[in-house]
Design goal:
Blueprint lengths: L1 H37 L13 E3 L5 E3 L9
Antiparallel strand pairs: 1-2
């Protein structure tokens, strides 16, 4: 009888560990998704290019920017 009780306790422990692991994985996934969707929201855009826009569909700008480019 003692071995059966030990087995039941161990099975319950394994179940709790598995549930904790699933919860942790879900929390990591949610946090990673929040980081991806936030982008640079907290930082904001530092500068806008001062050059002229070439091509309406491309939306690319060419020319000087307000700040020098970081190395």
């Amino acid at each position: 009888m003692f071995e059966y009780e030990m087995h039941q306790l161990r099975a319950a422990d394994l179940g709790r560990e598995a549930a904790d692991g699933r919860l942790l994985r879900e929390a990591r996934t949610v946090r990673a998704a929040a980081r991806r969707s936030a982008g640079h929201e907290a930082e904001g855009q530092v500068s806008k290019p001062l050059g002229k826009v070439i091509g309406k569909t491309l939306g690319k700008t060419f020319g000087k920017t307000r700040f020098t480019r970081a190395a």
